[in-house]
Amino acid sequence: MARKQSDYLANLLSGEDEDTTAAPAAASPAPASSAQTASEAPALAGPRATSRAGLSLLGRENALARVASGEVRQVTQLLLDPARVRVWEGNARNQARLSEESCRDLIDSILAEGGQKVPAVVRHLAGDPDHDYELIAGTRRHFAISWLRGHSYPEMKLLAQVAELDDEAAFRLADIENRARKDITDIERARNYADALPIHYGGKAVRMAERLKLSKGWLSKMLKAATIPDEILLAFADPGELTLNPAYRLACALDDKALAKAMRKEAKSIASENTDALSLGRPALAGPATLKRLLGANDDTPSAGPSIKKDLRLEITGPHGRTILQVKDVSRQGVTIHLPMASGAGDEQLAQALRHALDTLRKNGVTVS
Fold first, then answer.
1. How many helices (H) and strands (E) does the chain have?
2. Domain that residue 260 falls in
3. Given this model, what pLDDT does residue 64 score?
């Protein structure tokens, strides 16, 4: 236990107050005046001493009652060798992204303050000869202390608070802390929720939302965003730029198999372009531009039949010279046909126009079936 907490609990249980602290000075006999004899001094000090003893006893009883009721709880804090503490795999943070650069602000803060001020949260670990504790919250603190120990500060220790937690409680604790961390991406959180769903909540998103105090709709979006594969995410030079709503749109678009194939191809191209740009000292493609290119991707792979003309437009007029049918757009997702109001065409004329349009589309490689 840290010294300050140990002293705090000792003072709390001692029940000493300001009157008790001042007692020695009050109890010291002042020089007797001519009206006061030496025998009168004990008589004055006796009731005050009895009163102090009663207050001290009452304070102790009140303090013990507060501890027993849970109002006051002893918190154990230790200074640990970070090498003996392993990071819990249920934490949302991507450990591979931790580096001296990403943790530089924390490293400088620890050095400036003469040590770590905010404790990490750990739990006891059994059956692992290489580690004594498992880190639930505080992975950046763990990395920073480990880095400092390896770079001229071997005396640095990880300040940690020990908690007794099962896996589900550990997940909730880590989630609460991570929600306030801006350096954890929405995709990291989304994947963390997706991994925890079957392990802690039996695959029931409603139960998970209730336990974590989350909106069901928000959690549903998170779980959908977690389905985006790595090969698509590699297109984003900074994964933090892919926030929840754009990620949800991207995940929904990937449900279309033809579009997903085109997006994978486009993502590979973007990732290659970003690598080349960074090697030349130029900025990579920004997140919004990357998203736009992925969502607008087309599969241009040659097929056995005629190719689709993406710019195909068709307009059919009726007997009065008015447009009765238009083919306005052709894509892998479908054909957009417009029937103008008040064209003067009857059902049979419209049916003939539609048949003519379908025949024209087939000749241009578009088959609607």
1. 15, 8
2. 231-242+250-295
3. 55
